[in-house]
Amino acid sequence: MGSADSKLNFRKAVIQLTTKTQPVEATDDAFWDQFWADTATSVQDVFALVPAAEIRAVREESPSNLATLCYKAVEKLVQGAESGCHSEKEKQIVLNCSRLLTRVLPYIFEDPDWRGFFWSTVPGAGRGGQGEDDDENARPLAESLLLAIADLLFCPDFTVQSHRRSTVDSAEDVHSLDSCEYIWEAGVGFAHSPQPNYIHDVNRMELLKLLLTCFSEAMYLPPAPDSGSTNPWVQFFCSTENRHALPLFTSLLNTVCAYDPVGYGIPYNHLLFSDYREPLVEEAAQVLIVTLDHDSATSASPTVDGTTTGTAMDDADPPGPENLFVNYLSRIHREEDFQFILKGIARLLSNPLLQTYLPNSTKKIQFHQELLVLFWKLCDFNKKFLFFVLKSSDVLDILVPTLYFLNDARADQSRVGLMHIGVFILLLLSGERNFGVRLNKPYSVRVPMDIPVFTGTHADLLIVVFHKIITSGHQRLQPLFDCLLTIVVNVSPYLKSLSMVAANKLLHLLEAFSTTWFLFSAAQNHHLVFFLLEAFNNIIQYQFDGNSNLVYAIIRKRSVFHQLANLPTDPPAIHKALQRRRRTAEPLSRTGSQEGASMEGSRPAAPAEPGTLKTSLVATPGIDKLTEKSQVSEDGTLRSLEPTSQQSSADGSPTAEEPGQAWREQRRLSSASASGQWSPTSEWVLSWKSKLPLQTIMRLLQVLVPQVEKICIDKGLTDESEILRFLQHGTLVGLLPVPHPILIRKYQANSGTAMWFRTYMWGVIYLRNVDPPVWYDTDVKLFEIQRV
């Protein structure tokens, strides 16, 4: 039968379904088979031939027909999984049912009255498969569907290579098949790389799309503050009930990490061959991050059966959470597995950067946001992986693309979520000493980026990009300023030598943040000054020798520090500063920062195109909720300072969070300040002004300024290289206050960020699935869809 005929028949069946007012019996196979038996329709056809309005009409007017349709489609998938799909006809039926369910499920999820439908039991669908009346053991429809999908993903000659020697052999028995021998790709825990097979990839992709659609019930629930709500679909699929959990986890992870979009190393190869692997890799990445959506902050760790194949997983650790995917991820421990994962993610994240060297030479992948979430999950759930990443300069292969994305997306309000995940990853890494140490490696890769040209280290790159984000990013990024500067503070004690460009950028930020009208215009703005002073103090106390550029920049801008020390606190002065605010434009202008020419070949960061769709995000917790303060001891170990949050650091200067009201208040107050409800008082200014950690810098200026001035007068110098040479050989040993202990603010898991990740991840998945548009125009509740 031609495909036009089959579309016509399929459409006829859909119309019959929507116009029948009487329930159609489940036993009426002649009617139901029209939907899957005699048709060859693509998933795009199914979406076109089953309009949203008709699905909703059936749901409202003949609910029993919709229920039967779902039940029968699941039954067909279960039968396909049982039989092993040997004939072409069976394979076609499975794919048709899979497409139909992908189309219909979102409309079941959007109606609260239907939400329990898949979790109700269906008479006759016993857990053992036998016995019509064995209702005690009946499985909910959702469980039958999920187990069938899992079986079908390891179905020889359908989604995996058959291991049969010849056609004479009897078919492999689906029930005794050990799916660990059929893992899709070599990598973690599996050495054999199967022959690529286009048909298998396409079939896997269709089933993974259905699986993702099952998991997407989460999109139809509003963001809950407790966020402890586990997704029942994910919970069941990742439990011991799914005998394929380990091989499927491994298949997904390996498929993503082994993918090389360059077309097997040959430039321009992708123009000759269409890459059928990419859609599978993308789908695999999305399924993987959804299965790993697990709130590590609130979860207890129940016991699970710790048996795994091979030695890829670390059995020494106590059993992890019930979610086996999270459990397996947290127990990977072999160096070669870590290397494989890290190299794979770094290769894919760097892919858009390669584009800029040889335009169109490689295929440009689009799923970097999913990769960043995956990398985040790996570091968050597997501390051994985090330490491995930081052990060598390989971490820079993650840092550079992350900074590239941050710089590129900074002006685009539809990519605020990408900005957050990038900054969160750097915050997590910056809590480890090794990250700061690695940043000293010279930066020689010349990725065209819209930033001033500089010669220096990866630390310079980080500071220059952060300066760009703060001074010319979208205004919705302001909540991230605390995070950006916390990262700078965390790495500052380890930075051996800042370039002149980076040193000037840091002082420009201090200058901008310490103007009176900026300090007085919101309740927490002064924290930014505390962070910068803390970073300067760390560098002066611990890395004075190599940092003559920064010392010189501080001397040149010494008036900024004197102004801070003499900040006015009387009401008329405060009032006057705020008056000035109403006259001036945006808080951070580029003036005062010499913007050098941008790198060759770079394009300026562009704002979102009008009409771009974006999804809303929940607010992120304040920096005090996001991080936990630790002190670095003499031997380099960290000691948490959390229980006594009021204690000041050794030299009497408080930590940046102490001044001012509690952060929760401030989040509220800062939004209130726009409407003029919050106003600064003298007491408030005094409360934090007295704690500004200026002692170290004032002492430095006191010692060095007269010496520098003397050189200038004596030699009639205006040449800075001479002064820099003097500063390079200068020393402040014994002249500075006793070094303060280093304070590190480490990221800590909390339910606020878990909820943020959930909304961000599903927002990305919603927007990225446009062909077919699985969730488009359905009533999602987790976020709002907005047009720029």
UniProtKB/TrEMBL annotation:
Superkingdom of the organism of origin: Eukaryota
Residue ranges with Polar residues bias: 642-652
Region annotation Disordered: where it falls in the sequence: 572-677
Protein name: HID1 domain containing
Gene name of the record: HID1
